Request: fold
Amino acid sequence: MFGGLENCLYLCKRILFDVSKNSSTAMTIIHSDESQNIEFKESWNDKYLQWICGFANAQGGRMFIGVNDKHEVVGVDNPKKLMEDIPNKVRDVLGIIVDVNLLDADGLAYVEVVVEAYPYPISYRGHYYQRSGATNQELKGAALDRFMLRRQGKTWDGVPVPYLTVDDLDNATFDLFRRYAKLSRRMEEADLQDDNKGLLEKLRLYEGSYLKRAAALLFHPDPEKYVTGAFVKIGFFREDADLVYQDEIHGNLFQQIHKLMDLLCTKYLKAVITYEGIQRIETFPMPREALREALLNACINKDYSDTSPIQIRVTDNMLQIVNGGVLPDGWTVDTLLSSHRSMPYNPDIANTFFRAGEVEAWGRGIERIIKGCQEDGFSTVDFRYDACGLWTTFRYQYPVRVVGNTENFHETTLVGHETTKKTTKKTTKKTSMIQDEIINCLQNNPYATVKEVQMQFKSMTIDGIQYHIKRLKSMGLLKRIGPDKGGYWQVMDMQ
Reply:
């Protein structure tokens, strides 16, 4: 009998100790601001089930009933009824279990609702909510698609595409990939010698019998047939924000990267031409490697469920890449700028670029961009993340990196867009190294096609060659005699 009484007294003391302990912990939390994991409500309303749903779909959290926005405990009426009603309503409406605690502060009773993060989607009357910062947001459209895929352990680029077959893909891109992968030594020689279907299987680009979205973006000649907005827009702007000219880059991601580098370095960015002895030197306002890394990051980590294309804005002293990407949960720009593991938004796309030797698999892309600009000493780069995505901004000034003999700088060629009529006039008869090589090629073979010329420049696309030919024709240095088929090129005297 006495043993039973002692046990009863012990349990009562234990309960009082736990209440006191929980109240103390709760008061510490209450004195902090509302955040990702904390919400204050003066009284209970059934609509607050939305907030509980949001916690369950995020990282979990605590809701305090009977605490105002000033972090003051105001208490609740009928706390015992709330202790019964809240868990029952959460179970019946949301289908989950929450921990509900009755707490006390200076004689005022208030309620703590503890919500765990759930591994599967939780809905409130057919709608999905998720905690984001100190707000509760309803998930719709692309955001809902991303959420559902993550909860299923899938990624956007890993979703299968019906009616897409290996025969629909571009053989030339497969050849390009094989050449790059052989140089990178990140795939077995036997795998590279397999047919296209076998190669796709080795790259994990099949989901059962269906090709993944990644395969369409990487190898299809027109991926926009399957993915809206899978292209890049480039525009050159004056300081008054007027658009001077623009381009669009289409094709698969391998083609886009090469076209982008060609177009940016031949049309949008000026290269200062200097000489050391007889050696001709082209210097761009930023490291080409850093620019290429930034473009790869944008294409690999874009949220392609967002139908807006990647946008590149260029001015006389800035190049800005806007990528509608999404950072991993809990990540910020500070995470990107510090040492971090590789967590690409599109891992299948990232893996294929890795096998081709285009990227690393260690999460060092941002680090390499920053280091490249620091070593260059003439450009800076900064990053920003907001609702529009990730912004990568290179800043620079012209003239830059003038090396060697700098006499008569204004006579030095500026390859790319002309900044003033004065500069245009002075550089009318100046040609870039690539243009000189095109002229030599056409002198040796006047009947060469644009494709045959392009074969002499492994790093350039046909679009890049056509741009330079057009420039040479406008400068009066090159003339087409006869039709496109059957005609020939006439190289004019350079004066």
